[in-house]
Every structure is written in C-alpha cells, then in structure tokens.
C-alpha cells in the first residue's frame, strides 16, 4: 500500500490491479468516500496552459491508450496517456522546466519534470518506463532528451511510453499541454520547385 501511495504521489500510473483499493482493505479511504469534504488544493483546478513545444517521443506518435481519470483518488482508471514507442526511443522534455525526479520506482525507470511558469502549484509531468540520462535538478528546454524508453517495465502490450500530468495530486490529461498545431496532422502539401522547366526537354 505504501509503495502504491508513493507512486501516486510521484504521478506514476499504477496497473489497474494495483491502482484499485478493494473494499475493506487497510489504508485511508479515498477523500470524499465517506461523505467528508475533499480538501481543496489552491490552484489545483486552474486551466492547463498549452505550453508543450514537442512530443515526448517522435513527431506525432500513436496514442495507444487515452487518459481515463479515476472517479476517486485510489480508483481504477488510466492516469495519463500511452504513446507507442519502441525500446531505445529518445524521450524529450515537452516544455521548459527542471527534473524533479529521475530514478526507479517498483522496478520501473521514472523521470518527472516540473514545468516552469504553469501556476501555483506548478504542473508536473512523468514519463515511464525510462532509463534516465538527465539528473534531478537539471534544467531542461523543449526537445531536450531526458532518457530513453526501456525495453521492460511497460504496462502496454507493445512497447510504449506512459506520460502523466499532475497539478498537486490532481491528475490531468497530458495531451492538453499540446497546442492544436502539434495535436493534428495537417494535409500533405506539394511545394513548387523553382528553376526547373516544366514538361519534357525540347
């Protein structure tokens, strides 16, 4: 239970079987589960600014599993998005910030980045499973490599990067960090070629 709480505090997604706390299990009840008010965190419900300037992996990787927020703090759900990425794929910072954690949790490599100028409390993203090349305290810019996707530790059927987003202890949709121009693929466009005569040579 302590390990699960630690992973949740870091913003690390748990497998469904670990994320759910069965009825009657030891441990604190989910806030609001007994009718008590859920403690408010100042700024936790602030809108998510589209500060992303790059995808964590690739250019526009397939989303293999979407964000599915749990109904309660310890309930089932998917606390992030999964992006298709083969082992060894470079993992990049999407926005300016600093590395707040780089290490292993429950056998998985995890990198967390606190994003600058995103409010109080600031937004925090997490990547796993990642073999970190960045260290705690490193300042990062959009596109900086912070690690590579590990071949083991993924909860996906195929290799993927799990990307999470939190403000304080509230899980948010990581895709909301990306502006519309990065989210959609534009149609292919052929540009004119200058200086080449049209038609067959005469």
Automatic annotation (TrEMBL):
Give the matching PANTHER family. Answer: L-ALA--D-GLU ENDOPEPTIDASE, PEPTIDASE-RELATED
Q: Does the keyword Signal apply?
A: yes
Residues in the signal sequence: 1-19
Listed InterPro entries: Cell_wall_metabolism_enzyme, Dup_hybrid_motif, M23ase_b-sheet_dom
Per its record, how is this protein called by name? M23ase beta-sheet core domain-containing protein
Q: What is the lineage of its organism?
A: Bacteria, Bacillati, Actinomycetota, Actinomycetes, Kitasatosporales
Checking Pfam families in the record gives:
Peptidase_M23
Q: Quote the CDD domains the UniProt record gives.
A: M23_peptidase
> What ranges does the record give for the region Disordered, renumbered to this chain?
21-45
Q: Which residues form the M23ase beta-sheet core domain?
A: 77-174
Sorted alphabetically, which keywords does the UniProt record give?
Signal
């Amino acid at each position: 239970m302590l390990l699960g709480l630690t992973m949740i505090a870091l913003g690390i997604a748990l497998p469904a079987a670990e994320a759910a706390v069965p009825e009657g299990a030891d441990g604190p009840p989910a806030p609001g589960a007994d009718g008590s008010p859920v403690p408010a965190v100042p700024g936790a419900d602030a809108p998510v600014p589209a500060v992303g300037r790059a995808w964590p992996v690739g250019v526009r990787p397939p989303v293999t599993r979407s964000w599915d927020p749990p109904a309660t703090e310890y309930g089932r759900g998917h606390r992030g998005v999964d992006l298709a990425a083969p082992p060894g794929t470079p993992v990049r910072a999407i926005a300016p910030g600093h590395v707040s954690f780089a290490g292993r949790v429950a056998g998985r490599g995890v990198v967390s980045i606190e994003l600058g100028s995103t409010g109080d409390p600031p937004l925090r993203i997490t990547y796993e499973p990642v073999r970190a090349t960045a260290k705690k305290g490193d300042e990062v810019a959009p596109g900086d490599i912070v690690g590579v996707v590990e071949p083991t530790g993924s909860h996906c059927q195929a290799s993927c990067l799990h990307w999470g987003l939190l403000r304080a202890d509230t899980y948010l949709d990581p895709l909301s960090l990306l502006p519309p121009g990065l989210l959609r693929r534009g149609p292919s466009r052929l540009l004119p070629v200058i200086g080449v005569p049209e038609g067959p040579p005469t």
